[in-house]
Amino acid sequence: MLKILREDKKSGLHLLYGKPGTGKSTYIRYLCGLVKKEIVFLPGQMAQNLDNIAMTKYLMDNPNSILVIEDAEELIVSRDEKRNSNLAMILNITDGIIGESLGIQIIATFNTDVQNIDPALKRKGRLKSAYEFKALNPEKANRLLDEKKANYSTEEEMTLAEIYNISEDEQYKGPVRKAVGFR
């Protein structure tokens, strides 16, 4: 992914997906430190305006850049029979006339299953990379907990967010399950 992001005047799409807290945003921050390009962060809600003429002008003024869209579910889920002009714009940026002329790459994060993503986004040539972020298995989680000197061990999978937010005052207790229905 890093090699592709560093290429000049190349368009394409990179999908990072998985449960919340598994490290998608942290990985993007890491990549940003290694890539010497203009990086534009768009929250999912703001990215709903990708088809706006002002956004098109902004992209035209920032060629050869990387567009990061976090929590992009609403933009990239399957269209089925519905028209989604923002999805159409992503398709154009990553592999259409706009993409060819501007060389903008998109990194999109989402928490939904990759099967829910519009198939047009996964087309060969457009999709440059995809990676699923998962919780760490107990062995890896315990290794990281040891490195952090967290004074805690687990027999369960843990996300990076759970590991990095463990404090000695408040130990991790696992997921809380709420009862639904009558008792």
General description of the model:
It is a single chain. The chain folds into 2 domains: 2-133, P-loop containing nucleotide triphosphate hydrolases (Rossmann fold, 3-Layer(aba) Sandwich), CATH 3.40.50.300; 135-172, no CATH class. Helices cover 33% and strands 16% of the residues. It is built from 8 helices and 5 strands. It has helices at residues 2-6, 24-34, 53-60, 73-76, 85-95, 97-102, 138-147, 160-164; strands spanning 12-18, 39-43, 66-70, 105-110, 127-133. It has a 5-stranded parallel beta sheet with strand order 2-3-4-1-5. It starts with a helix and ends in a 19-residue tail after the last helix.
Fold topology:
Blueprint: H1 2-6, E1 12-18, H2 24-34, E2 39-43, H3 53-60, E3 66-70, H4 73-76, H5 85-95, H6 97-102, E4 105-110, E5 127-133, H7 138-147, H8 160-164
Parallel strand pairs: 1-4, 1-5, 2-3, 3-4
